[in-house]
Amino acid sequence: MEKLDRILAALPKHKLSRQADFKIKIQLYRLIFLGKLEKTPVFAHKGLAFAMLLIMMFGTTAIYAYASGNVLPGTQLYPIKLAIETIEQKISVNLPTKISTYEKFSARRLQEAVTLSQKNLATSTDQTAINQNIQKNINSEISNHQAVVNSINNINDSAKATEAISQAKKNDQAELNSLNKIADYAKTTNNQEVLRTVNEAKNRISRQEYKINQGTSENNQNPVTVSPVKINQENKNRDNNNNDHQIPVTVSPVKINQENNNNTRDQKPAPDSGTNLINHQLNQEIPQPVITNSNPDRTTNSDSSGNNKVNSENSNKSGEHKSDTNKQSD
Amino acid sequence: MRKNQDNFIPYYNQFKNKIYNYFLYRVGFDKSLAEDLTSEVFVKALKSFDDFDESKKFQSWIYMIAHNHLVNHYKSDKHNVPLELVEDFLHYSDNGAEDRYELERVLKIISSMDLSDREVLRLKLVDELSNQEIADILAKEEGAIRTQISRSLNKLRNILNNNI
């Protein structure tokens, strides 16, 4: 039995062969390396690899296509430009980058449309195709603009959201200017389809409300609504001469901001129709963007912080009829 | 929170031979198969390294993975453990000729024992695990393992005595 104990105590142990050890280590290091790559967000996107491939394949041509303002819809390089833009969009990993990318593309589409319209006026060749491209670009701008709004609404940090909204509103103003240029072209060429598309885009921009998601705020869990962009004096004058352009504009249901009170006293009151969506012509002043602390679920402007007083004061100052919502609250 | 996977490599270096021997004794000393299974177990362990509780012993954890992997291997491959490779295995051991003969006999007897006896003896004698570690791997109480090892050793002795 001693022999058995001796044998059992010294059972032979073998070592993993060097070759097998090497193979396993290679496998493990590969997995560790891949795991590290996954942690790096930029490389996590296959898009980057594709972009690198694209740049390698097309080289400077691709860079020119992407960067040049002369690469317009209908040109051979334009699909490359769009492909690179799609990749750029996909590798935008955080919300602020996404928003700025959407804004950039939105402005770019409109600029292309403006260039096309000017080119069309100068050459008057193949108007149908160019008009179609102009409409396509405007529609693309509309979807990019909507993406900006959606992205801003998803920002949880109210400070960042406010900053993003401020930038977005500046861009909206620039886009409205570009749209006006295209509208001029449409009027000159009497192109009703382009004009309709332009008006639709302008309506969307004008009606758009940005919301500040205050999920991180301790005191207020309600989203803050920012009213549509104010259409500037240039637009107002422009549209005084074009009364045929009926653009519905959403006026924020509740405008309760002390700062804004001072502004609105000197202004004409917004026309009341009893609904949130009010159609009125562009020759009417649209109120300054205001930040309202309203709950979107509410339809009346009752607020525990005395905001009713502000509204009633506004109504009295204006001497006009009260809105339906005010009547309800009264 | 994700663990730094670089920390896995020292563990691999420490336990690669133990896991290799674990498989070697359980797949009929088929070196190639034991190497493959060892590789698969460490890859599996690396992939689930985040689940490893560092307050516990790595040895118990890796042996549990190896044990489960072996069970799956048998389930999928339904083969009996051949012993024809024992001689080849022993040929490379340092023991003398007489010891080699005895060793071969012992290993064959262990391989012919019941699965439960066989497993505890291997875990105790080959893998040199503590009773608690064996209990963790086989999901049993430490006391029950101690008793079973004692019984299995007695069985082995009886078989050897009867075969003399």
Oligomer: heterodimer
Task: Compute the number of strand runs of chain A.
Answer: 5
Mean pLDDT of chain B: 82
**What is the CA-CA span between the terminal residues of chain B?**
59 Å
Can you tell me about this structure?
With 330 residues, chain A is mainly α. Chain A has 2 domains: 29-93, no CATH class; 95-238 and 247-256 and 271-294, no CATH class. In chain A, 62% of the residues lie in helices and 4% in strands. Chain A has 14 helices and 5 strands. Chain A has helices at residues 2-9, 18-39, 41-44, 46-58, 60-67, 78-90, 95-123, 127-153, 158-188, 192-207, 233-240, 258-265, 307-318, 324-329, and strands at residues 210-212, 224-226, 248-250, 277-279, 291-292. In chain A, the strands form 2 sheets. A 3-stranded antiparallel beta sheet of chain A has the order 1-2-5. Chain A has a two-stranded antiparallel sheet with strand order 3-4. The N and C termini of chain A lie far apart (104 Å). With 164 residues, chain B is mostly helical. Chain B has a domain at 7-82: Orthogonal Bundle (Rna Polymerase Sigma Factor, Chain: A), CATH 1.10.1740.10. Chain B contains 8 helices and no strands. Chain B has helices at residues 8-24, 31-47, 58-77, 86-91, 97-112, 115-126, 131-138, 142-163. In chain B, helix 2 (31-47) crosses helix 3 (58-77) and helix 7 (131-138) crosses helix 8. Chain B is globular, with a radius of gyration of 17 Å. Chain B starts with 7 loop residues before the first helix and ends with a helix. The model of chain B has no long low-confidence stretch (mean pLDDT 82). The interface between A and B is medium-sized, with 27 and 35 residues.
